[in-house]
Amino acid sequence: MEQAYGAGKAGGAFDPLTFLQQPQTILRIMSWIFSIVIFGCIANEGYLNHPNEMVEYCIFNHNQSTCHYGVVMGSLAFLCCIAFLALDVYFPQISGVKDRKKAVLADIGISAFWAFMWFVGFCFLTNQWQMTENKDNPLNEGADAARAAITFSFFSIFSWDYADPSQVTAAMPPAGAEYMTYTGDVDATGSMGSTYNSSAGYQRQDY
């Protein structure tokens, strides 16, 4: 079988150039970069403190949960992107249809989950940033980082909300695959039928 259900020839040699040119790989790398930007912006510039105070506060409306959400989601998305890139590299080596189906369905489900979580994150960050008062940050420190985190949260919704059509096909065997074995047996045997001759026993009769 030249194409093993949409993932290229099963067991074939890995081609890095072809792999990097695939739309799904490009979007995974973009999601990976977006997660680094979101995590870095909030972790490095998302916390400020007044000169006479030792306690740091989140620049998003002094809501610590907002910064925690961005940092946690950014770090987890970073790890998830690496895991899926590894799965994409290994995927052509998977020859079992059931194993491929599980991998593709897991990919679709987790990607949908992340798209939803980044949508929630985008709304959460945007809402808290709009509620932030100027008196809490008169020098406007960390404003660019906050806007960058919000922007890349929005981009992450679409970078995760993608399913490679070639791999979606991998979740479903081709039409008629369940009859291939039976049909092959009949074709190899030929048409069935026989007559009995009293002198020579059973003789084959082709129709």
Q: What Rg, in angstroms, do the CA atoms define? A: 28 Å
Q: Give the low-pLDDT segments.
A: 1-9, 177-196
Count of alpha/pi helices: 7
Strand content: 5-15%
Query: What letter string, H or E per element, gives the SSE order?
Result: HHEEHHHHHEE
Number of strands: 4
What is the 3D shape? Answer: elongated
Spatial order of strands in the largest sheet: 1-2
Q: What's the story with the biggest beta sheet? A: 2 strands, antiparallel
Oligomer: single chain
Whole-number average pLDDT?
79
Termini Cα gap? 32 Å
Kindly name the structural category. Answer: mainly alpha
How much helical structure, as a percent, in the residues? Answer: 55-70%
Features of this protein?
207 residues, mainly alpha, two-stranded antiparallel sheet, 7 helices, elongated, disordered N terminus
What does this structure look like?
The chain has 207 residues and is mainly alpha-helical. The chain is 59% helix and 6% strand. It has seven helices and four strands; from the N terminus they run ααββαααααββ. The strands form two sheets. It has a two-stranded antiparallel ribbon with strand order 1-2. It has a two-stranded antiparallel ribbon with strand order 3-4. α2 packs antiparallel against α3, α3 runs antiparallel to α4 and α4 runs antiparallel to α5. The longest helix is centred in the middle third of the chain and has 35 residues. The radius of gyration is 28 Å and the shape is elongated. It starts with 15 loop residues before the first helix and ends with a strand. The N terminus is likely disordered.
